[in-house]
Amino acid sequence: MRVFLAIEFTEEVKEYLYKIQQIVKNHSSAGNFTSKENFHLTLRFIGEVKEHELNKLKEIINYISLNREIFQIVFKELGEFPRKNKKIIWIGLQQNKELDLLYSNLEDRLEFYEYPKEERKFVPHITLGREIILTEEFNNIKNSIEIDKVKMTVNKISIMESTRKNGQLTYIPIYVKQFNSKC
Fold first, then answer.
1. At CA 21, angle to CA 20 and CA 27, rounded to 5?
2. Residue 25 in domain
3. Which phi and psi (to 5°) does residue 62 adopt?
4. Residue 46: in which H helix or E strand, if any?
5. Three-state SS for 85?
6. 10-residue block means of pLDDT along the chain (183 residues)?
7. What are phi and psi of 99, to 5 degrees?
8. CB atoms within 10 A of CB 145
9. SS3 label, residue 75
10. What is the residue range of 69's domain?
């Protein structure tokens, strides 16, 4: 199975992201847009795993969730990763020490279990769409969309399976570990 580690979003946050996505979609001639149900924050893509590896990943998130307090993330701005004439469009987050620490602890624990360290810098973002061809300049779109400083409480980490159901890409939580309830 193909898995990644993520922070799942509430339905209210998914609805907010969907509204922003629709504005981007209205300024696009093509693109592969994330379904509303699949909005999440990827902490680490793992890839194909066997059952025994899944148990290792459960141990890892159990360990990093131990004594972890809940925290808040805040949405900040629309961003892009250019890919030739197409783009990945995303919403980024405000700088967050707790999120950075969670990611760092996760990377350290993954390395302890012999997963190679991620080579790219951690840029926390929520992908709205891939392979997007915009009908106007990105900065014009970015400036026309006001990103509310929406806050969301992060109180768990999930192992998500990426699979296809009826031809549709679907992300399914297969193991969820709650943090402490303090804030």
1. 100
2. yes
3. -60, -45
4. strand 40-48
5. coil
6. 96 96 96 96 95 93 92 95 91 95 96 91 95 94 89 95 91 93 53
7. -65, -45
8. 14
9. strand
10. 2-178
Q: If we measure between CA atoms, which residue out of 9, 45, 37 comes closest to residue 154?
A: 9
pLDDT tens digits, 26-36: 999 999 999 99
Tally of structural domains, the chain:
1
| Catalytically active residues, by annotation | 40, 125
- What does DSSP say about strands 86-93 and 71-83: parallel, antiparallel, or unpaired? antiparallel
Number of Cβ within a 10 Å radius of residue 23 = 14
pLDDT given at position 181: 58
CA distance 130 to 31: 6
CA–CA separation, 21 vs 15, rounded Å?
10
């509430």: which residue's tokens?
10
User: What is the Cα–Cα distance from 127 to 67, expressed in whole angstroms?
Assistant: 29
Query: For residue 134, what is the domain's CATH number?
Result: 3.90.1140.10
- Alpha helices by DSSP H, listed for 39-137, are 51-65, 97-112
Torsion-angle region of 135 (φ positive above 0: left; ψ -120 to 50: alpha; else: beta)? alpha
Query: Do residues 182 and 70 touch, judged by C-beta distance below 8 A?
Result: yes
Distance CA 174, CA 52 (A): 14
